[in-house]
Amino acid sequence: MVSSVRSKGAKIVELKEFLDRVNLIKTESEIKNLGLAGKFTEFAFGKIVQEIEEIIEGNKQVKHSAIQKRIEAVLDDTTAMSNFLKNKGMDASFLDFPLPVLVHSGGDFNVHKFQIDSNDNKLQSQAIYINCCGKYCDMSAMASRTLIVNP
């Protein structure tokens, strides 16, 4: 097919760079939605850090997967989310977290290997890796953070 197109005088060019630049262009609503997705991600991150601080300060033994489930339950609870949604101009039906909250700690994880779920190891308070993704409408914001406890 390519040879028949070339034989008719057409030139084949690489469009990846051009399409990458086109995808950088955002409308006003996309920029607003991206900001709201970022605020949602920041809110979720705050909940994760708060949960982890309570676990460490209480010297509790909690599995990474249990932390993930607790945070996701809060994010799914409309009553708990009402304080976040207040005065933000957001419609809760457009909020989503497209990836599970990810919590890992201790020496048994690799941040270069993307994992979809937290494992069942118990939280260790040396280094804690957190990954959270929030989505509003069609725009997503992802944040990762490593907490170093008592360095």
Structure, explained:
There is one protein chain. The protein has 151 residues and is of the alpha+beta class. The protein has a single domain (30-148), classed as Creatinase/methionine aminopeptidase superfamily (Creatine Amidinohydrolase, Alpha-Beta Complex). 44% of the residues lie in helices and 17% in strands. It has five helices and four strands; from the N terminus they run αααααββββ. The protein has helices at residues 2-7, 16-24, 28-57, 64-76, 78-85; strands at residues 95-96, 102-105, 127-136, 139-148. Strands 1, 2, 3 and 4 form a four-stranded antiparallel β-sheet that branches. Strand 3 and strand 4 (139-148) form a beta hairpin. Helix 3 packs across helix 4. The longest helix is centred in the N-terminal third of the chain and has 30 residues, at 28-57. The model has no long low-confidence stretch (mean pLDDT 84).
Write the layout of secondary structure elements.
Elements lengths: L1 H6 L8 H9 L3 H30 L6 H13 L1 H8 L9 E2 L5 E4 L21 E10 L2 E10 L3
